[in-house]
Design goal:
By secondary structure, the protein is of the alpha/beta class. Helix content is 32%, strand content 13%. The two termini are 30 Å apart. About 5% of the residues have low confidence.
């Protein structure tokens, strides 16, 4: 029996034998009460209040969440493993609370982690069959911080395999698919794509990737931690109607996280509301630099790491917010190309315009348009849309002059370093060995979508290609940062930029800038080619992202909170009531 189904069996045991009716269990000096507490859409603060008042315990909370996992796992495939120690940890935390010791706002709160984040008591696989059952020899720094803060690591989430750096064009790996975990399904429409020759069993509505927000949206745990290199917190947050904070690179240690590239990788919180995401963010951030991650210490954390002081419902008043329309909201003709770049659908456009109007109603000054110079520049060498990330089987050595090799260089460098950190338990010793293992075990489904991204990464020579990598990294920062976000914010004296969905994630990711996405509505799911006649696709979520300069999270959190309080557009998925 696999790890996945062993853990599923455990949750079924909880469901059938513990149940979810009100009950009281007395053990030692701890009273576990499971009085009627509706955890669906409950906030972290509401859970803490109920526990402080004796209406709820951490054990009761874990029990209810495990029951929901058991109920909805077959429908959603949200977890790749469940922590068999979750109830024992909850019991200890209940003892501490009974003795008057509460570690902080996450004491007794169940949190899920993306399965590329190390946990010494659960496997960390990255969704790769080669790493099935791999239990790392050390916790990630952020995992330690969560444990110290009293959080309960309840599960690991499904994810796009190795954070979506396995296969690229022409066989792009679908969001939230991995050879180990299969497909994750969006709770707003958890069905398979019915289009002949296209669906391949994948979800009809993308759950986003490579992080998963499925379980948080479906109320299988209080919140989760994702990771992003270029959009993998913001996109699944958008698709699951969540708040996601993609931090400045360096706010949160990456030690103990399976990497793509240290140049852009970061972890970040995903939650059902801004307050919960903010609480989790404050716990995840390193107050002191982590000696295992030299990027930490880039930004000054707030006093006691408490970002909730920035949750001001009046934060939009007087704020200056720019709208980068060209290439993000509306199509933009790029020099030297035939087809315009960017743009959103009519229903998305309508919602985005409504969001802009609300900003103005709440007292913000909206500068529209506030286009990024880098997407309008007539010089192809200075136009970001002419400078993509090298990703696909056609971007091999000698065919990659028009794109950045930062990802494929970073993957070779950082993935091999991560394998080395595992010591003797590493199933493979190098990226080369992983590729060979995948090929040798293809009949197990290791490379359903092939492995072109691993291939182009492995051909990198870290010494010979270093000068090219450094030049590309410098160009990434120049086009996306200096000539992009920095220039627009300086020209219009802005506090933030507003993008539809995650449309600005690729730009902000290159210089390592932060964004906060907030749910705002639902839009139709109308792909090309269309669904078969008679198939009624359900609408999918739509959010808006506030993006700023490095270390601007306090201001972005304030703007996001004010917008959320003015709109309150999140609705729970009906498929997991």
């Amino acid at each position: 029996m696999t790890i996945k189904y062993l853990n599923y069996a455990m949750t079924m045991f909880v469901f059938f034998f513990l149940g979810c009716e009100a009950e009281t269990i007395v053990e030692s000096n701890v009273i576990t009460t499971n009085e009627s507490f509706n955890l669906v859409e409950s906030t972290i603060q509401e859970m803490q209040t109920a526990m402080n008042e004796g209406r709820l315990t951490a054990q009761g909370l874990v029990q209810q969440y495990l029951t929901r996992i058991a109920l909805y796992e077959n429908l959603l495939n949200a977890t790749i493993s469940v922590n068999p120690n979750a109830m024992a940890v909850a019991e200890q935390l209940d003892r501490e609370r009974a003795e008057g010791q509460v570690r902080g706002p996450l004491h007794g709160i169940p949190i899920a982690l993306k399965d590329n984040i190390h946990t010494i008591d659960m496997p960390t696989t990255g969704g790769a069959l080669a790493f099935a059952g791999l239990t790392p020899p050390y916790d990630a720094t952020l995992t330690k911080k969560l444990r110290e803060a009293g959080a309960i690591i309840i599960a690991k989430t499904v994810m796009t395999e190795l954070a979506n750096w396995v296969s690229g064009a022409p066989l792009d790996m679908p969001d939230n698919y991995s050879s180990l975990g299969g497909y994750g399904f969006n709770p707003y429409d958890p069905r398979r794509d019915p289009r002949p020759g296209i669906g391949d069993g994948m979800p009809v509505l993308s759950p986003g990737g490579s992080s998963s927000g499925i379980g948080t949206s479906a109320n299988l745990w209080a919140a989760n931690v994702g990771t992003e290199t270029s959009g993998s917190i913001l996109w699944p947050s958008n698709q699951n109607m969540l708040v996601g904070i993609k931090p400045t690179v360096g706010r949160i240690s990456r030690y103990g996280i399976i990497p793509i590239t240290a140049d852009q990788d970061t972890a970040g919180p995903m939650a059902r509301n801004v307050t919960d995401a903010t609480i989790l963010f404050g716990v995840l951030e390193n107050i002191e630099p982590d000696p295992n991650d030299p990027s930490t210490g880039r930004c000054e954390p707030p006093t006691d790491g408490d970002y909730t002081t920035f949750l001001d419902a009046d934060s939009l008043r007087g704020a200056r917010i720019g709208i980068p329309r060209a290439g993000f909201v509306e199509p933009n003709t790029v020099v030297g190309t035939e087809n315009p770049r960017g743009g959103i659908s009519s229903s998305q456009f309508e919602l985005f315009e409504e969001a802009i109007a609300i900003l103005e109603e709440r007292g913000a000054t909206v500068i529209d348009p506030a286009n990024l110079p880098t997407v309008l520049d007539p010089d192809p060498e200075r136009n970001l849309f002419r400078w993509s990330i090298c990703a696909g089987e056609d971007k091999t050595r000698g065919n990659d002059e028009d794109c950045s090799i930062v990802f494929k260089y970073g993957m070779k460098r950082d993935f091999n370093a991560w394998l080395e950190s595992l010591g003797s338990i590493a199933p493979v010793s190098s990226l080369t060995e992983l590729r060979e293992w995948n090929t040798e075990n293809a009949l197990l489904g290791t490379i359903k979508y092939e492995q072109s991204l691993l291939d182009i990464s492995d051909e990198v020579d870290l010494d010979r290609d270093r000068a090219r990598y450094e030049a590309d990294r410098e160009k990434d920062i120049e086009l996306a940062g200096t000539h992009g976000i920095d220039a627009a914010i300086a020209e219009y004296d802005l506090d933030a930029l507003l993008f539809p969905m995650n449309r600005g994630s690729n730009v902000a990711a290159r210089p390592g800038y932060p964004s906060v996405i907030v749910p705002f509505g639902m839009v139709g799911n109308q792909p090309e080619p269309a669904f078969p006649e008679g198939f009624e696709a359900r609408p999918g979520p739509f959010g808006v992202s506030f993006t700023g300069l490095a270390c601007s999270e306090p201001g972005l959190i304030g703007l996001a909170y004010a917008f959320e309080q003015a709109t309150q557009r999140r609705t729970a998925p009906s498929s997991a009531p």
